[in-house]
Amino acid sequence: MKFVFLLAYEMAEKFGCIGVVDAKPEAVDFYKCCGFMQLDVADGNLNEPAESVSMFLPLKAIPKPDN
Q1: Number of structural domains the chain divides into
Q2: Is there a domain that residue 22 lies in?
Q3: Region 44-54: what's the mean pLDDT?
């Protein structure tokens, strides 16, 4: 998880990433334990539920890496 958080900070600086993950349904509980919040989103033109579960963790909730 540490590598992913470091990558998120790098992406935030380069592209404006703020902390979203598309989790597999079976991984939702894991991400919730890490502080992620589930987002209600629809996928495609038919407004059908997405196959993955979009979740959000504000980047400011992650300790800044030591540089």
Answers
A1: 1
A2: yes
A3: 68
Q: Tokens in use for 44?
A: 């495609």
The answer to the question of residue 66 being in a domain is no
Do the domain assignments include residue 67?
no
pLDDT at 32 over 90: yes
d(CA 37, CA 61): 12
Over range 2-7, report the average pLDDT: 82
Q: Residue 57 to residues 9, 22, 41, 50, 61: CA-CA distances in angstroms? A: 12, 11, 16, 19, 7
For 27, the domain range is 2-61
3-state secondary structure of 61: helix
Highest mean pLDDT among 4-8, 28-32, 36-40, 45-49: 28-32
